[in-house]
Specification:
With 210 residues, this protein is an alpha/beta fold. It contains six helices and nine strands. The strands form two sheets. A seven-stranded mixed β-sheet has the order 3-2-1-4-5-6-7, with helices on both faces. A two-stranded antiparallel ribbon has the order 8-9. It is globular and about 45 Å long. The structure holds glycinamide ribonucleotide (GAR). The site of glycinamide ribonucleotide has 17 residues, from α1, β5 and α6.
Length: 210
């Protein structure tokens, strides 16, 4: 059984998609062992509680400096002994100590088609605002492995989503979630749990058949 820790910051709809996919059997061979939030008021923590999953908060506000927060985050993740860490709307740049300790074992969902509309300043609703401001006709979501550079590691899954006339950032965000994010993230976890994902020496992922 793959032990999955999920890091969240806000509403937690992606966390919910994972919880539901584990319950329905869409995710095979995995269990969520801990949910970690940097935000005490994140509704995602309520979702965890309702599902009977341990949820904890590690907030930068509770530490003297960033270094101490980083170490506490690392400790809380290590404690859960995860095989995979899933960033599901986690609005914190993952510290190097965490990346080092869990190299190749962290995935992130990004609400655009990387390498477009990603990097510094591209998070949450801002991504969709920028897609609309640029007049892009297609956007989507990406699940990728996390390395030291923001939104940069090996791409695992992507799905395109149409931008429609009259879209607001909120409407587009919802469509990207419904048509891409909530499908891709559980699928990525299930593929990893089944041992079907390999990253080659060029940082390209390969998915094997069942
Ligand atoms: C999601 O759209 C996720 O892709 C995005 O934040 C939202 C969180 O929603 N993540 C990023 O922008 C990371 N760079 P949720 O809390 O309802 O899952």
């Amino acid at each position: 059984m793959l032990r999955v820790a999920v890091c969240v910051s806000g509403g937690g709809t992606n966390l919910q998609a994972i919880i539901d996919a584990v319950a329905s059997g869409k995710i095979v061979n995995a269990q969520i062992v801990r949910v970690v939030s940097n935000n005490r008021n994140a509704y995602a923590l309520t979702r965890a509680e309702k599902a009977g999953i341990e949820g904890i908060c590690v907030s930068p506000k509770d530490f003297k400096n960033r270094e101490q927060f980083n170490l506490a985050l690392l400790e809380k993740l290590k404690e859960a002994d995860p095989d995979l860490i899933v960033l599901a709307g986690f609005m914190v740049a993952v510290p190097a100590c965490v990346i080092d300790a869990f190299r190749g074992k962290i995935i992130n969902i990004h609400p655009a088609l990387i390498p477009s509309f990603c990097g510094k300043g591209y998070y949450g609703l801002h991504v969709h605002e920028k897609v609309l401001a640029r007049g892009a006709k297609v956007t989507g979501a990406t699940v990728h492995f996390v390395d030291e550079d923001l939104d940069h590691g090996p791409i695992l899954l992507q799905k395109a989503v149409e931008v429609k006339e009259g879209d607001t950032p909120e409407v587009l965000q919802r469509r990207v979630m419904e048509e891409a994010e909530w499908i891709l993230l559980p699928e990525a976890i299930s593929l990893i749990a089944q041992g079907r994902v390999r990253i080659d020496e060029n940082g390209i992922t390969h998915i094997s058949d069942k």
